[in-house]
């Protein structure tokens, strides 16, 4: 797979990752290499990565607890303290090895430590490979509210080694598929069609799909790096998805949903809203709902659940003047931004989703 060039950094794949990494460590006058991982990636991914890391520089490893609940400013403070105690300076480099929590949080830590140090993202989950590690968004949650604190700051590089996917449990693989489905729905109808039947999917097929997803996201980000307009289309499914994810995180009686599981629900709900606004056809809606529900289990919501989720919508980052702004589909392969949606239609979307 060819390297993708972006403004300010490169996205490299598989063997090219380690050639680049050795070159960049040799050519830059770094003082120390810091590696941030969670306890899962530290066990399953870090040994293989370190075996490819040929450098005489001192290497310091910082480990955090896994999971969305640890994507917090409190975890950042712990990492900042650890880096300080281990002698990090602005000429250190931070390599973030993990899923979206690690790359989001690590990018924010590096962007703010001593007003900024270089960092490299090494995504190890499917979701992080195709979405979280690409585009320069860094940050943490504020309580259960997703991605409320952060900055846009690009890494030195993103290194995508698809061999790390062999370490993932099935739910995490499905979670990443949600973002890939989204890329097809908002930008490439032919790419979307490849997900209508995933039986017989080979490793090579998956590698090509990952590459196309990264191309789509990178193309959108390149045209609108600071999310003034077009980049908002990448939030399709996320207005409802983030509110659902937050609700399940804060509700003790519910098992938390993975990010992709919540976004999958959000895409069906927002596709239903698109249908009712006559932006997609009934046939397109049925196709979207059928494909997504063939991959993800249906989750049941009570009226109380829905009411609480609606309250969380007011915190969505796209909102302007207190109005919730949705991204909706304008046919499969296209999207429109800044759409107002009334609560009654959202309730109807939940009813249709569950039936």
Give an overview in words.
The protein is of the alpha/beta class. Helix 7 crosses helix 9 and helix 7 packs parallel to helix 11. A 7-stranded mixed beta sheet has the order 1-2-9-6-5-3-4, with helices on both faces. The chain has 14 helices and 11 strands. The protein has 2 domains: 164 residues, Rossmann fold (3-Layer(aba) Sandwich), CATH 3.40.50.1970; 185 residues, Dehydroquinate synthase-like - alpha domain (Dehydroquinate synthase-like, alpha domain), CATH 1.20.1090. Its EC number is 4.2.3.4. It comes from Flavobacterium cerinum. Its cofactor is Co(2+); Zn(2+); NAD(+). This is 3-dehydroquinate synthase.
Task: Estimate what percentage of residues fall within beta strands.
Answer: 15-25%
Structural class: alpha/beta
Number of DSSP E strands: 11
Estimate the helix proportion, in percent.
Answer: 40-55%
Provide a count of the helices. Answer: 14
Cα separation of the termini: 42 Å
